[in-house]
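Q: Structure tokens for this one, please.
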Amino acid sequence: MSLDTPADLLAYDRAHVWHPYTSPTLPAPVRLVTGAAGVRLRLESPDEPSTEVIDAMSSWWAAIHGYRVPELDAALAAQTRDMAHVMFGGLTHAPAVRLVERLVAMTPAPLQHAFLADSGSVAVEVALKMVLQHQRGQGRPERTRLLTVLGGYHGDTLGCMSTCDPVGGMHTMFTGTLPRQVFAERPPAQGADAAMVETWADGVRTVAASHAHELAGIIVEPLLQGAGGMHAYDARCLQVLREVADEHGLVLVFDEIATGFGRTGELFVSGGTARVTPDILCLGKALTGGYLTLAAVLTTPDVAEGIAASESGVLMHGPTFMGNPLACAVALASLDLLEARDWRADVARINAGLRAGLEPLRERPGVADVRTLGAVGVVQLDHPVDVAKATDAALEEGVWLRPFRDLVYTMPPYACGDDDVAAITRAIGRAVEVA
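A: Here is the predicted structure, written as tokens:
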């Protein structure tokens, strides 16, 4: 059939294309994107003229520089003249080596070894394997479970799902069929008093002590839980997790796939204001500025030596597109751009605009909470969002939002100007009205 018009494309999409978290038989409506530039997407529909809308989601938090970025376009084009891909087994190439050198230099000093994966979920799967193999190399093969906290989200593949919240998370239907991990309470919210933090810490210490004989590691999203509820928590909790890991010989994993590269106001939470460095660090999403899928898992010499001492002697993982040259080249250009711009000032400016625009919504009926952290703004409702109505209302304000559960939120590109941020907060206000 012909797929030449927006109507044709949308009709075929509805009949045959499966989108994230949608029914194959009753698909949710989608919008047709025909181009993107700066911080805007161009949408086409069968019945209306094309429109441009601000992407307040950074394409699921990845496109931190926006779209059609000249420096990233040029890096991608230049790499195609050498090679688009080459297997990483037994071979290497300059973009991968240079990217690892940059990541090692940018992250806390103990993190010296990097594994280049091909998506965030795969990065977490690799991290879980690292934890288990390290414990085997230490002569503790009985240690096979992970300690984590309620409210977390670490990806959609099987190992990742086992570390997501088994009660309030997206994967509750799989509870009982996945590996059974150990869960502590969700950390208290940012700004909690010392007594609340200490009560939570006592609970974590108790859980860890009772399961220490079977625990291999701890995995958390540091400071900000993403798809589990956009919950920002107190940085002192990370210090507690580091102490618990050290006390019981556990490998501490920070999943910074969402928080890395400046999103919280720190380049990385790891080694940031909390002064806590994990044993394993997972990065992704913004690593390539949203151009191509790429992730990285960094770890310490101690963990690497433990893996080498396990019975295989090698890390048992190797994705086909590991270290893809195109992705590595554009990631290097993205890191160049991030370092060249005053990203800290951009994130602080966006935060100020989000706070100014969203704080008044706290008084609206149906609003349970308003919170911001770095370039993240969240309005939590006291009821589930009507996603279709909220999306339509935001689009009427010229903004693309993707609410979920009881949340209307934004993670805009750092390239957004003050007027863009103001438009985003107005759109969130409209979405809240109808949601």
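A few notes: The chain has a mean pLDDT of 96. The longest strand covers residues 32-37.
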